[in-house]
Amino acid sequence: MRQLDSASLTALLADAVREHGVPGAQLAMAGESGTVTAVAGDEVAGTGRRVTGESAFPLGSLTKPFTATVAMVLVADGDVELDLPIAKYLPELGAATNGADAVTLRQLLSHTGGLAADVDETESATTRRRWDAAGAAVAHPPGTAFSYSNVGYLLVGRLIEEITGMTWRQAVESILLRPLGIAPSFVLGATARPFVAGHVVRPDGAVIPIAAQTVTALSEPVAAVAASAADLVALAGSHLGTTRGNGLLDQETAEQMRHDQLTGLAADSFGLADGWGLGWSLYRRGGREWFGHDGTGDGAWSHLRVEPVSGTVVALVTNAGNGVAMWDTVVERLRSGGLEVASYPMSAPGGDGPSVPAPAECVGRYVNGSFTYTVEADGEQTYLVPDPEPRVGLACFADLRFHTVPGPGAAPLAGRFLRDPATGRVALLQSAGRLFRRV
Prior knowledge:
With 439 residues, the chain is an alpha+beta fold. It has helices at 6-20, 64-76, 105-109, 128-135, 150-164, 168-177, 220-223, 229-237, 242-245, 251-257, 323-336, and strands at residues 24-31, 34-41, 57-58, 198-201, 207-210, 226-227, 275-276, 281-285, 288-297, 300-307, 312-318, 364-368, 371-378, 381-386, 392-396, 401-405, 414-419, 426-431, 434-438. It folds into 2 domains: 1-345, Beta-lactamase (3-Layer(aba) Sandwich); 360-438.
């Protein structure tokens, strides 16, 4: 696979930043010939403080592969087993009655544990140990379906703490970041390496800096890491063999992490990726399988893709809420230049053929943890009500996929309804990888 030189990569990034009005970004590519990094724009819009190759960007959910990698190092060392109930390691779950005690580490890492998508905001101020016993409720039978879960990764973080005797942050620093030569940076609390500000980019082009990230101390294992594009290349290198990864992961463990865990499940990773491993999302294009992850913070987007056969790595970090659209542009231009980067169009409208009225049986209330979607019908028009937000119109298709019809400047949300195999009735709604059960 062709790798761009520094001048070409810089020109590509500069054009994409200009086109989308993104304040600042880094783009890194790596292959057999080494790593090339391009930078553009400002760390904070209007300040003239330029992005450098060392600038750390909030990674949002791209923190999860860091957490997963630490957990798999512990698995490789024999400290924890993938397929034992996590209650074996977390005493506070021993008496739990919410189903979380039976979930395994494999299920947590692959989002197949059936846990709720997010933490209830009323619980965000508690410690991870206290939260475990009451907060980690199961929303779906473990091991039956994919449903993206931040809650699951809080449990992975808590498991790391119990096994290592360190805080999650200390474990990530000592087991992963420092051995890879990554200067640690986190988006909350004291950190020696500062991170750049996120930004809202309005439809009229106005750019508004965001003062702080809203990650809580409870949610650190989910979204607290800040890093550069080059740091993401280093993380990828730890999964590509001992030469580039400093021996951090053995080949068997690294390959195990990118093995698809979703075969035969009732719901796959629709809306996010083509498959899911242990911490990695999987993408397929042109007969090749890539692994990686996407992340969004407050006014920030990050993306990582790795093709393990050729060792090709592409990493983009941006400090804008519209950075995902810029990523789509970067992918398109890399493909035009001969690099067939695999990705998944998260906001692309789904469905085949013309839109049709949604079946009446789709109307109802769908729940995942404390979050609720309500589907309403008004004549032939169907609406989605994401509580507590206003309703938006739905364009539905014969295959039960749908996308929202948002107002000006807003991106469509893609999703689908799923039938219960036993009854044939619509029983689930899936959106952004989260699975909501009809009640």
